[in-house]
Amino acid sequence: MEEPEGEVDDTSPLDGLFRDISRADLQRLGGSANIDMDVLAEIMHLENYKSTSRSAIVLDLFASVLLFARDSRFSAEQAAALFSLFKSLHDAAIVERASLDVALERFRDELNERTMTLGAGEHDPLRLFSLSELAAIADFASRTFFQHYRLYQLAFKAPQQQTMVSRRLVLEVALRPPPHADAVLEDEWLEQEARRKQDLEAIVASASRGKEMEAELDRYLDRALPTLIAVTEGFGRADLVRVTEEAVREFIADYQSGVEAELRQREAALLD
After folding, report:
1. What is the secondary structure of 187-251 as a DSSP string?
2. Radius of gyration (Cα) for the chain, nearest Å?
3. Would residue 68 be called left, alpha or beta, if left means φ above 0 and alpha means ψ between -120 and 50 degrees?
């Protein structure tokens, strides 16, 4: 009587390496030069990394791990093993609050037990990394995670204080240049500037003349006041108003004639 055949275990001893990141997840990340942070955030359940600094720190760490694996041309199994190794180190630093010495000892144990020899058989161990690859991993860990080990611990232990400061700033913005359609030749522009200067001088002269005429009116009234008093002595109110209005009209007429003469001179100068 034949004994029934036992079930064949077709699982690979390497399948256990994908417990923290699956083969499909590594395929989703692709092989481009950069890691898609949104995809990695979804894989690690850190979708809030854009608004939470601690999630961003974790995501940045593991993105650098995967980039190192990609640059080192690691296989999917090697990349998954490296990912799990750094996850264990991160848990030791943040969850267990282990000292740097303890973390370094764990790192050496992980390299020896998990990533160097995997149980393909007691007499036939499966080496996942070569000695040169192990040396590269040790160098990468020392100049990244272990170099900033205390900073990682402090970032996840110390309260995250946020200070919102707002200030009103006044910025001087340069004037927009005129459109090219309004551009003129240099000679024409110089002529326009000369006209503007003449107009400005005319305005200043007119203002000065107005002040002179105002002072002249005051002098005229001062001179005319004794005469008006003598002439209007015994006048009624209506006669006094009439004489005063005639004197003012005489002065205004003189003023207008002077202004008109100046305007004619200005017009003639512009037409020349």
Report:
1. HHHHHHHHHHHHHHHHHHHHHHHHHHHHHHHHHHHHHHHHHHHHHTTT--HHHHHHHHHHHHHHH
2. 47
3. alpha
pLDDT in tens, 84-104: 889 989 988 888 888 889 989
Other beta carbons within 10 Å of 246? 9
Non-local (6+) Cβ contacts of 136 within 8 A are 72
Tokens of 4: 């029934």
Q: Which token pair is 28?
A: 């989703």
Kindly write down the DSSP assignment for every residue of 63-86, as one continuous string: HHHHHHHHHTT--HHHHHHHHHHH
Q: Please list the residues that pair with 126 across neighbouring strands.
A: 118
How many CB atoms neighbour CB 79 within 10 A? 22
Chain position carrying tokens 């205390």: 150
Find the length of the chain.
272
Instruction: Dump pLDDT digits (tens) for 123-159.
Output: 445 578 888 888 899 999 999 999 888 888 888 876 6
Main-chain phi, psi angles of 145, to 5 degrees: -65, -50
Question: Residue 127 phi/psi, 5° resolution?
Answer: -90, 120
Element (H, E) at 118: strand 117-118
**pLDDT tops 60 at residue 115:** no
- Read off the pLDDT of residues 229-238 as tens digits, 9 standing for 90 and up: 666 666 666 6
Half-sphere CA count of 272, side-chain side, radius 13 A: 6
Q: Could you report how far apart the first and last alpha carbons of the chain are, in Å?
A: 133
